[in-house]
Design a protein that fits this description.
The complex is a heterotetramer, with 2 copies of chain A and 2 copies of chain B.
Chain A: H1 2-18, H2 24-40, H3 56-63, H4 71-78, E1 80-85, E2 97-104, E3 107-114, H5 120-126, H6 133-149, E4 153-159, H7 166-170, H8 173-184, E5 191-200, H9 201-205, E6 212-216, E7 220-222, H10 226-233, H11 240-247, H12 251-256, E8 262-264, H13 275-294, H14 298-310, E9 315-317
Parallel strand pairs in A: 3-4, 4-5, 5-6, 5-7, 6-8
Antiparallel strand pairs in A: 1-2, 2-3
Helix pairs in contact in A: 1-2, 6-8, 10-11
Chain B: E1 25-27, E2 34-36, H1 37-42, H2 58-65, E3 72-73, E4 78-80, H3 94-105, E5 111-118, E6 121-128, H4 139-155, E7 158-165, H5 173-192, E8 197-206, H6 207-210, E9 219-223, E10 228-229, H7 233-240, H8 251-256, E11 262-264, H9 269-280, H10 288-300
Parallel strand pairs in B: 6-7, 7-8, 8-9, 8-10, 9-11
Antiparallel strand pairs in B: 1-2, 3-5, 5-6
Classes of the chains: A alpha/beta, B alpha/beta.
The structure holds zinc ion (2 copies).
One zinc ion (ZN) is lined by residues 28, 30-31, 33, 47, 49-50, 52 of chain B.
């Protein structure tokens, strides 16, 4: 499904390039990605189970649905007067992350979100929503700008992950993610993160250290893609549906594991079918949480944020009696 | 806290013989020469003929670095749970995998934390063991690192993290990802207490650990031969469909791209640590011996 | 503070005719067309035929941006001294150079600072005039920028800096270099007062100004056609002995390298500023009119 | 003189490259620099004036003297246990700036200094002491590291200026300098800057925002090189000696102008003739100032630093009566 979409987009680019635009590089790049995708792509999933609850793999497909609302759709609908800010002041500007100021229910807020492209041209620009270090550094810059003025931060996460490329490694993508995570614990304004589509690994959590972490009903949030997990653990990338189930990457599981605070319901069939409904529900939730967080003194806010993540994890205490 | 003395958590640093010592000689994988195992061990697990670095387990690392007899295990008595009820395709459940790793390594977990002295300076060490499911970070490692940081603050010791890890532990799913945030959140306590955090990256330091606590050191050292990066070579190659630079993600690559302060030969790591620690000396507990005694007393109470 | 009304510092925004209005028509240097001067001015000094940007003086810039009638000069009554007793090779002393620039521009200095409203929001403007010795920063510009920042804090107004400068003023030697530090040190006052600093870079914003106050904005906008950089093209070319990228140091180059938030067409600059200011509105003095009245009263006392 | 030295170094490189090392790129680079230098280099200056006071142009030549002690010489002699730190954690490591921790009279301090090379090979590595943005960003990182532990900062400045190159501009050298200057005003530890050789423009002041600014007797500190000034203002680069005099770039002038706090005397003929003497005098001065500064509460320290620079500049007040 995704690669059919991609194929369509490559065609589109080819048409564009017939009009005199040189897009050969972009097309080659896309074709490489398509080839990689094909190798990873799985057989069609079995039809949905008769239960009303969707299968985890179905959810993965919905989270990646090409018609799903993306970050800019949320910004447009949830906020007013969005003013986009660009650049990390160090190296470049990364269009895979959108940052800016906007008014949310009358309150100026910082918006940071990963952004996928709707078509081939935009996907080249947005790098399929996979940010480079400069994207995360821009995000940090703008969040700190907001902090200076007391503006709360709203992040929207929809990324397969940070971009796996040479330039990203050269510019210390790992360090950039680490720095963002660290600094988010000291940002003296409320932070609300929402996983709206794909919450892909380190590239997601670097924007998701929030006082509240919300998640759309059909979003996913995982330490690794189902395909990657299947390739490594099962030595068979086509076992992605099984991996998806094993990883417990959907909102209901994550709520149970204490990783997220609230699931934002979607209409049957996914957010893209009735976007206004999902947007309305998310807006109400953001408003409610923001209201609560703005009432907290900064010190308490930061302590609670730290304690929230300090608690995460499950392990077994070994009773002393069992030790030899 | 009497458990610290018990076998399950104790790292046996001074055991005279090892399981794998079935023969006295080994063949170096780099130069092909036959070398005397004892000599290799005495030489920091470096081939005496060609200088090739052999793998170091966490106990070996600790032995290499700390003042003799100064190490004391301060691990929390915890082991991995199975929150996802995760089963690999081959049918082996995660708890079995843990059990196998425990049996193979003699360790309870993929990380050992302990209190020690290095050149007389008080340190809290957190040392990963790559043999234990690739030294991957799950809930236990996250908690032990936080425990180590809390101890460093309590004892006014430097925090020294030695990474040897493939990243997050997939079998714990999202909870392993959360350890990136959990460990990073604890790191601030060191800054607030004005205590140094020295991060040592070895072969390999990648993915979820590299993109969190390992990259947050005040001083970052890479052991010669380290592999440092976020995404694995294979995945990158598959994505960009190009050959990677020859030195990609090597120690030298990390140094040239400003990611680490210095590259250090294994045999110089202890001396280098002492050099660094000496510059922070006034901030650390003045008499390490006293601190250890104090800790022991508290532990008994 | 009655001097604010006096001719020497007042920027006459509403004068109906100008010195250079000797003819009604001018030839566009870009498209070669003859265009009616009045139309050009009404069009923000942009060629009505081809869109080429003509040079804007500081008074013209102010006129373009502020709410009509809202601008009030708040400059300190100072002009350049000659601490180095600097004489060019052609024998012209620095004070003569200043005097000539004053006569040619009708301005006391290379920068005008004033209080105004933009879309009703209170701002303190600092606007450089490139005609005045290349808009270069000496002691006067440094002090006027600090004065502007102090006023912004007092009035709870946004600080808007519009740069058009070749950098430091050589004729003041080291003291011009020191203005980089002086202006940067004042900038913190805005942060402490939670007041926004909007830096607008135009053609050209380079060297000592680009490497200090102009790069320290909360929001940085580049006017389309801006030249932004530290070292001049000529010097770089001479050093590296290579051709420079075609877009080197252009507005687009600055944007692509993450140096500015947005590129803005001249004719949209006012609207863009209002959009930005509106997001900071609750932090600014609620009723701009009241603030101005308060300032006037204090000035009279 | 400088270009004779450079020529010698190129020869040296050629010899090196005969031993199998490929240095063709470095040699080409150096030759380009040599050519540029030749165009800028001035005729020999007139013999020193009979007065004991050296002529300003003589001082420029001494400040650039190839045997003059460089930053690493000072570090070696002034401090103990120097531990060099590398990398900006963003992009790279710049050998034109040396940073690290060391013990100065028993106190751990941060050392930051620009570093020139002694020979051709080292000058290629050190880029003739002309830093890139990553150098300034490394400096800021290490100064902030020191701040966390309360370590005072000692900077040593000897640079023709930030490197005028494409990469430097691409990575926002102006922004890097601005950021350093700004952050230095908020560094909560004492900062003592010493101009030991060339204090070249923005590239120098970005490390010289100190509570104290010291300067060696034969160092220079200027907004522009004499050659550059002559080329622009006099339209004749050979007039550098005149420009040097006009710019008032030597220590006695700068003391008078209130830009520096103390001149560190050098032996007749320059610091390189009796390095120990100069080093001893500087050490005593650093000690004295550090002792004073460490006694100040942080708030006062920062206020005084800000006020010190707020006062810089000379202008004329216009009496109201003179206004029409
Ligand atoms: Zn060998
Ligand atoms: Zn035209």
């Amino acid at each position: 499904m995704i690669y059919e979409e991609l194929q369509r987009q490559i065609e589109q680019l080819r048409i564009l390039s017939r009009n005199g635009l040189d897009l050969s590089e972009e097309i080659a790049q896309l074709e490489a990605k398509l080839a990689a995708l094909k190798r990873q792509t799985v057989a069609p999933a079995p039809s949905p189970s008769p239960a009303t609850e969707l299968d985890d793999w179905e959810r993965v497909k919905l989270a990646r649905h090409p018609k799903r609302p993306y970050t800019l759709d949320y910004i447009k609908s949830l906020t007013e007067d969005f003013y986009e800010l660009h650049g990390d002041r160090l190296y470049g500007d990364d269009a895979a992350i959108v940052t800016g100021l906007a008014r949310f229910e009358g309150q100026t807020v910082v918006i940071v979100g990963t952004q996928k492209g709707r078509d081939a041209t935009e996907n080249v620009k947005r790098n399929f929503g996979m940010p480079h270090p400069e994207g995360y550094r821009k995000a940090l810059r703008v969040m700190k700008l907001g902090e200076r003025f007391g503006f709360p931060v709203i992040t929207l996460i929809d990324t397969p992950g940070a971009y796996p490329g040479v330039g990203a490694e050269e510019r210390n993508i790992g360090g950039a993610l680490a720095q963002n995570i660290y600094e988010l614990f000291h940002l003296k304004v409320p932070v609300i993160a929402t996983i709206i589509g794909e919450g892909g690994s380190g590239g997601a959590i670097a924007l998701a250290v929030g006082d509240r972490v919300l998640m759309l009903e059909n979003a996913i949030y995982s330490v690794i893609t189902p395909e990657g997990c299947a390739a490594i653990l099962f030595r068979d990338a086509t076992k992605a549906p099984e991996a998806a189930r094993a990883l417990r990457l959907t909102a209901p599981h994550l709520l149970r594991l204490g990783v997220i605070d609230e699931v934002i319901p979607e209409p049957p069939g996914g957010a893209h079918l009735e976007p206004e409904m999902t947007l309305g529900t998310l807006k109400e939730a953001l408003q409610r949480h923001l209201c609560e967080l703005l009432a907290l003194p900064v010190e308490l806010l930061l302590r609670q944020r730290r304690e929230k993540f300090q608690k995460m994890g499950v392990y077994e205490e070994i009773p002393e009696s069992s030790l030899s | 806290m009497a458990i610290f003395g018990k076998k399950y958590f104790k790292v046996e640093l001074d055991r005279p013989e090892r399981k794998d010592d079935e023969t006295l000689w080994m063949k170096c994988k780099a130069c092909g020469e036959l070398v005397f195992k004892k000599r290799v061990r005495e030489n920091n697990n470096i081939c005496p003929k060609c200088g090739e670095y052999f793998f170091l387990t966490a106990p070996e690392r600790i032995e290499l670095l700390v003042d003799p007899g100064s190490f004391e295990d301060i691990s929390r008595p915890i082991i991995a749970a199975d929150p996802l009820q995760f089963t690999d395709e081959d049918g082996s459940a995660y708890p079995e995998k843990i059990k196998k790793a425990q049996e193979e390594t003699g360790l309870a977990n993929e990380i050992i934390i302990g209190q020690a002295r290095i050149g007389g300076y008080p340190v809290i060490l957190a040392v990963m063991d790559f043999r234990f499911i690739g030294g991957s970070m799950g809930s236990v490692m996250g908690e032990q690192i936080c425990q180590a940081i809390r101890h460093a603050v309590k004892e006014r010791a430097a925090f020294v993290l030695i990474s040897a890890t493939g990243g997050a532990r997939m079998q714990e799913g999202i909870l392993s990802l959360m350890q990136m945030a959990k460990t990073a959140s604890a790191r601030k306590m060191l800054a607030e207490a004005k205590l140094p955090f020295i991060s040592i990256m070895t072969y390999p330091t990648t993915a979820g650990v590299e993109a969190s606590i390992a990259s947050l050191g005040d001083i970052t050292l890479a052991e010669k031969g380290a592999l440092i990066g976020f995404t694995g070579r294979r995945v990158i190659k598959q994505t960009i469909r190009q050959d990677l630079p020859e030195d990609f993600q090597t120690d030298r690559f990390a140094f040239e791209h400003g990611m680490v302060d210095n590259l250090v030969k294994r045999e110089q790591l202890r001396d280098e640590l002492i050099r660094v620690l000496s510059l922070f000396a006034p901030l650390l507990t003045q008499s390490p011996a006293v601190a250890i005694e104090a800790h022991k007393k508290e532990a008994i109470v």
